[in-house]
Amino acid sequence: MELDCRKAQQMINGYIADTLDERELQAFLDHVRECPSCYEELEIYYTIHLALDYLDDDGGAANPTLKLVRELDAKHRELYKSKVLQIIRNVLTAAALAAAILAAVIQINYLITGRLGLIFIGQEEQADDVQEQDSQSEEEITEELDEEKIRESEETTAAIEEIAAAEEADHTGETEERLQGN
Fold first, then answer.
1. What does the mean pLDDT of the chain come to?
2. Confidence (pTM)
3. d(CA 158, CA 162)
4. Which residues lie below 8 Å from residue 92, measured CB to CB, with a gap of 6+?
5. Is 153 within 8 Å of 87 (Cβ atoms)?
6. For residue 124, what are the CA distances in angstroms to 77, 108, 119, 138?
7. Would you kindly state where each structural domain of the chain is located, as residue ranges?
8. Is the CB of residue 41 less than 8 Å from the CB of residue 9?
9. Which of 8, 10, 23, 165 is most buried (most C-beta within 10 Å)?
10. 26, HSE (Cβ side, Cα atoms, 13 Å)
């Protein structure tokens, strides 16, 4: 969702009140990060909001600009974590689906042929030899498949966490540059 300055400025109160949905919030944060004019407008409204809260609560932030920058960063991290979790859920769902399909194919083949393992046309004699040599039970094969699925999930999760850490480190550098610029 691409925003122009007029639409972004209309969303400032929604941002401050924390009523923007995830898609709107992402578009708003992207625009404010790139548009100095809208960032300045947000900073003014945000400072006024903090001042009113200060009067209402008899407390407040010593540096509203710093508080705004930190809040913007926190929102970006929230959105990023949400996206990473969605990716992890999708990967795990796909892995579980693949394992279920493989288990169903093996089960159907076992019911049809009476043999454990996949048998293709013309391989019955080879399958007899393999069946004699293969003494693993159906439970052992299922356990091996489960262990492989867990291992793949752990590798995927580790890779995603590495990407997230790199993104967060890069994002932290941008925040420090912005603070030094103020």
1. 78
2. 0.41
3. 6
4. 153
5. no
6. 57, 16, 7, 19
7. 1-60, 76-182
8. yes
9. 8
10. 10
> Torsion angle of alpha carbons 134, 140, 143, 144, nearest 10°?
-20
Q: Does residue 71 contact residue 159 with C-beta atoms inside 8 Å?
A: no
Largest CA distance in the chain: 87
Residue 70's pLDDT band, with cuts at 50, 70 and 90, is confident
Q: Specify burial of residue 43 (Cβ count, 10 A radius: 0-12, 13-18, 19+).
A: middle
Residue with tokens 């291992």: 151
Q: Coil, strand, or helix at residue 155?
A: helix
Higher pLDDT, 139 or 45: 45
What is the C-alpha to C-alpha distance for residues 63 and 6, in angstroms, rounded to an integer? 27
